[in-house]
Amino acid sequence: MRRILTLLIATACLLYSAASASAQVTFSTEAQYAILMDFESGTVLFQKQADEPMEPASMAKLMTIAVVFHEIEAGRVSFDDEFYVSENAWRTGGASSGGSTMFAEVNSSISVEDLVTSVIVQSGNDASIVLAEGIAGSEGTFALMMNELAGDIGLDNSHFTNSTGLPDPEMHTTARDLANLARYLIREFPEYYELFSIPEFEWNGINQPNRNSLVEMGIGVDGLKTGHTEESGYGSVVSTEQGGRRLIGVVHGLNSMRERTEQARALITWGSRAFERIPAFPEGSVVGQADVFGGEKAQVDLVGEGALDLYLPRGSRRCLSAQIVYEGPLLPPVRQGAHVADLEVYCDDALIQSAPLYAVEDVGQGDIVRRASDALKELALGWL
């Protein structure tokens, strides 16, 4: 049962809200799928079909890069290692394949650092396959590693079948999962993130610019990845620290590179400029509670990930309302740190922000008296 608890937000926020007239959230996008996320808290400021399955195209290479970085951090791979360019990598991802390529020579060996740079800057399909084969022996086994790490990250609506993002009916992701994947890369591997803003990369005498054209536009975008197939259209995952905080944006399902660039630019610029930040809940402060059916405690306290701020459209303070939403009652055991609810903030009737909430502590199963009383309470609620 979906439970909704109207939330009285901090007094400071209510004082703010009395100051100005109501306004409407006005942003829209031509993208079929889109999301805008605050990096620090995971708060969502805009979304459009963010949980609908979609073909990732070359944005799947972010998952490839995540596996490579994970293997480097674990000490199993080094940037100085050299991997062999197989005939499969050359034929499937090389120049003759017609897709984005590094122009790697068959039977040559290339360092992991150069392969990673090619994947990020040139979107090299051949480089992606060479990395997959060099780490896992085959691209199929590497895809298993991609899905295992995706599960660890919490990308619950994604399934990867290859390292390149080349079309496969079994491969899918969502805009939300791609934003969370970008968030993982930025948070866990900050020492490597500068690779995403390299303006160009040359290999085999061929110089190619970064396919993410926003990197060179001077608007503060410093990553991450573009993608395109005939079936899926054009998309990109972008990030910027403009506006005093880092934002991550995803757009996909567009009709051209020009449209992709413009829609991604519009989304990330709007997010950087159109909101004012209002502190609401300091780090560790309780936002609310969720009911636990048959638990040793009747409720569990909920907190955000770090400090939880509200980002309100400028001139829209009076429209503020909020609620905690979760599927409940929760069933024990509830684990400390589990994502069990969301804080939803509205401007008039428009959802303008959604932030994950987490259980403060473990809640185990209660005794038989507790379970019986909770059963009666739920039955009474059902009658009502």
From TrEMBL:
Keywords: Carboxypeptidase, Cell shape, Cell wall biogenesis/degradation, Hydrolase, Peptidoglycan synthesis, Protease, Signal
Function of the molecule: Removes C-terminal D-alanyl residues from sugar-peptide cell wall precursors.
Catalytic activity annotation: Preferential cleavage: (Ac)2-L-Lys-D-Ala-|-D-Ala. Also transpeptidation of peptidyl-alanyl moieties that are N-acyl substituents of D-alanine
The Peptidase S11 D-Ala-D-Ala carboxypeptidase A C-terminal domain, residue ranges: 275-365
Top-rank EC class of the record's enzyme: hydrolase
Pathway: Cell wall biogenesis; peptidoglycan biosynthesis
EC id: 3.4.16.4
GO biological process: cell wall organization; peptidoglycan biosynthetic process; proteolysis; regulation of cell shape
Similarity comment: family membership: Belongs to the peptidase S11 family.
Family matches, as InterPro entries: Beta-lactam/transpept-like, Peniciliin-bd_prot_C_sf, Peptidase_S11, Peptidase_S11_C, Peptidase_S11_C_sf, Peptidase_S11_N
Protein known as: serine-type D-Ala-D-Ala carboxypeptidase
Binding annotation for substrate: K225
Signal sequence coordinates: 1-23
GO MF entries: serine-type D-Ala-D-Ala carboxypeptidase activity
Keyword Protease: yes
